[in-house]
Amino acid sequence: MKFIKSIFVYGVFIFLTLPPQGLAFQSKTEYTLSGQTMGTFYTIKFLAGKNENLDSWQIRVDRCLQDINKTFSMFDPESRLSQFNRQEMGAEMKVPSDFYAVLSTAQRLYQITHGAWDGTVKPLVDLWGFGTQKTENRIPGPEEIRLALSKTGFHHIRFLENHTLVKDADLTLDLGSIAKGYGVDALASLFRATGIRDVLVEIGGELSAAGINKKGEPWSVGISRPDKDNSKQDLYQIVRLSNQAIATSGNYRNFFEINGKTYSHIIHPKTGFPVDHHIVSASVIAKDCTFADGLATALMVMPVEEGLKLVNGLEGTECLIVEKKEGVLESHLSENFHRFLTE
Question: Domain 84-173 in CATH: superfamily?
């Protein structure tokens, strides 16, 4: 399960020149929608004509988010996710197309990261006290960890035709590490379907930027400095995005300490222990936010070199991995991440 990440719209600075296409956007109005969903907040900015009905858009957005929660919520016992978790082993379950599509992305993440991303780690997350039901912070015993590990493994989910799934083990899915990303993608699609091409969608730090902003430029987005003592407004980097998504995962605000040792909420799916290295945050730029969201979590688990190698081999995907060594932050960029940085 991921800490609510602190990426947010930072705004655009001074523009010395305005591209020709920007002149057309000067006649458009920028609208803003906001609200609460998935235990966090969302903000949407979009450009359209002067006669847009903002109340109508708010209703459509909230309805879309309600539908997503009905599918992926861990807290709704009637959600599709909860139904899947109650499904008997070996029984076939036909699921909606959106649920099947998200799990297909999850399967790809599990495969390409060699299990560094695994949506079935909930028993381990709960065991360490970071789950939906908070428990006392403590270090579990070896037998407890072994038992929890026996109830994990995304490879135990089989994908059949006609949007049908089967689980071959006693698993509990928790898609919190990609559900917000999917929500962002769904809202972006909602606007595209009506012909609106210039829109910025953000849910709890996951973000999709389409087209350009009111200034006729790519959207500028700030990545917060990964330090528990800094505010969300203290930026580490600023990137410019157009028709890309970005997601960030971090471990610098959700952890506990015992006997001077820090235990992060990011659990290694193979060892059953919180990750124990210098990585404090990972940001991923990709075409869709569902994939970026999950991959950012995986990069928090993988060694830096392994994560960079993976991302450099993925088309249309870039990353920024930040380590903290002896109080100093050190950036590791994929081959083309620098193209998105502001000068």
Answer: ApbE-like superfamily (1.10.3980.10)
